[in-house]
Amino acid sequence: MTRRRRIYEGKAKVLFEGPEPGTLVQYFKDDATAFNNQKKGVITGKGVLNNRISEYLMVRLGEMGIPTHFVRRLNMREQLVREVEIIPIEVVCRNVAAGSLSKRFGIAEGTQLPRSILEFYYKSDELGDPMVTEEHITAFGWADTQDMDDMISMTLRINDYLSGLFLGIGLKLVDFKVEYGRLWEDEQMRIVLADEISPDNCRLWDSKTNEKLDKDRFRQDLGKVEEAYQEVARRLGILPEGGPADVSGPKVMQ
């Protein structure tokens, strides 16, 4: 990392002041956490892989009309992003029962849900990221009804697109978490997709074997965590057989 003013450091990324006004440099760490930061570890090469995977998916989503904070990848671990006002809500989209949903409702993991389900969580490590409703979100001023409509609409579009994209490379999109931010341009505000999309915040299973290829391998001590992330990148066509090197940018898949 070069010497720059650090703006914010989270569990998996660091944000630095960007080269131009209104930009930030997002650095991807190898640090891994689970269970609201109760379990910690390091996944070697994770930052490099997540940088590449998130770049690829953000570019593809941008091409189909989803506004994002992503500008371009700078190097192996960094990307240039637009500075946004993060909305303190995590939006989770679930297609298949897994994780906390299985525990809360006693549904066997792997059960196909009758339809995609959206859940909202308030971003607060101190409170354990509690689940909240739209009533909480609008009443406490975290987002207004128009913000919610935009986030819900975009999340469902992201789900439709990514489900098809991953299915085409033999992966099942079980669920995923996204975050949004307010981007101000010429006194106009719009909601854009922020943070990242990677195996850190997506549950991805092999569509034939249901093998887990995401951070659940770290959460559940399944081993071969690095290999799982590499496999996702390899199937997306952005990782050569040699491993997580700094290879060329994403190729458009026909």
Summarize the SSE layout with pairings.
Blueprint: E1 6-9, E2 13-17, E3 23-28, E4 31-34, E5 39-42, H1 46-63, E6 70-73, E7 78-82, E8 85-96, H2 99-105, E9 112-122, E10 131-132, H3 134-139, H4 145-167, E11 171-185, E12 188-194, E13 202-206, H5 216-219, H6 225-236
Antiparallel strand pairs: 1-2, 2-3, 3-7, 4-5, 6-7, 8-9, 8-11, 9-10, 11-12, 11-13
What does the model show?
With 254 residues, the protein is an alpha+beta fold. It has 2 domains: 6-84 and 225-236, Phosphorylase Kinase, domain 1 (2-Layer Sandwich), CATH 3.30.200; 86-206, D-amino Acid Aminotransferase, Chain A, domain 1 (2-Layer Sandwich), CATH 3.30.470.20. Helix content is 28%, strand content 33%. It has 6 helices and 13 strands. It has helices at residues 46-63, 99-105, 134-139, 145-167, 216-219, 225-236, and strands at residues 6-9, 13-17, 23-28, 31-34, 39-42, 70-73, 78-82, 85-96, 112-122, 131-132, 171-185, 188-194, 202-206. Strand 9 (112-122) and strand 10 form a beta hairpin. Helix 1 (46-63) runs parallel beside helix 6. The longest helix is centred in the middle third of the chain and has 23 residues, at 145-167. The N and C termini lie far apart (36 Å).
